[in-house]
Amino acid sequence: MHIKKLQQKLSSLQNISLKVNNEKNIYLINIIKLNQKLSFFINNSLSNKNNIVLMRQKFGIKNELTSNIFLPKGFQRLARFFQTHRELWIYLTEEQKYGTDSYTRYEKTILASARRNVSDFIVIGKRAKQFCEENKFNIVKSFSEEECDDHLAEHIARIIKILYHQNNYKNVFFVINSNKSYDRPFQILPIEKFSLGEIIHEFRGNLNTEKDFENFRIYPNISNYFETEINIFLENALNSLIVESNFYKAKIGLVTTNRMIKEIDEELVKINKKILKSKREKEIEEIVLITRNNKNFSV
User: The domain that contains 57 carries what CATH number?
Assistant: First the structure.
């Protein structure tokens, strides 16, 4: 290749390298911020859950978002026999760059676990909506990528509270792209079954689960406080998984940009070698030409 074309290619790759490195720095900053948010929401949601469970055990408070664990087993079986329990699934997909496909495995899990006649869906993102429509799942609410703002968890929590009792839901599941759960969804409700899988392992040791509510003064009353705690729990739990999805997307982006940077750097080394080789060949040609001219001049 002509040296001028090699230099043009080198310049173009250097510009791409600068752009990709800038993108890498953005991912790094974003990952740090998201990790802090994730820690905040997970710790708070687990603390909320523990408070709710302890308060229910202490005061016997009833709420449709908690399990009927205090009913005699015979009554629990009788309730299951006469009631048709439904399930609410929340499926969040985000825009994917570089032609990756991270959601197929989760969709296989949904198809294997969600029964169409008893499952409703809240979908977030274009792919999630398309998947549910193609597979004839009932969509009760859809959000576009543009609607994924800081108030998304609040909106979803409000929908869950309205529909949970109205539609007689037994479970609420949340499906996101995360390396912390490949073959099963995360569970939000009932609260006693709230599970974030591998995400929570590093945070469990930071929680103080012992609360002496007898020494607390709760205003205006225990029922209102319990209801508020449930509202806060729902938003923290939902935010935990929304942020985890964002966090994993950023990590995938970082891995991809690191791979691109490595490939670009390798190509830059190759082009620099070619340029150096071309320069040397040109120098040799010039030396040969000068030597030939000198011989001709001497003759």
Answer: 3.40.1380.10
Give the pLDDT confidence of 70-85 residue by residue, as tens digits.
334 443 454 444 456 7
Print the domain residue range for 88: 27-254
CB 167 within 8 A of CB 88: yes
Rg, the chain, Cα only: 30
Query: Residue 292's pLDDT is what?
Result: 67
Domain count of the fold of the chain: 2
Question: Is there a single domain that holds both residue 134 and residue 282?
Answer: no
Q: Annotate 124-144 with b (16+ C-beta within 10 A) or e (fewer).
A: bbebbbebbeeeebeeeebbe
- Global confidence as pTM: 0.82
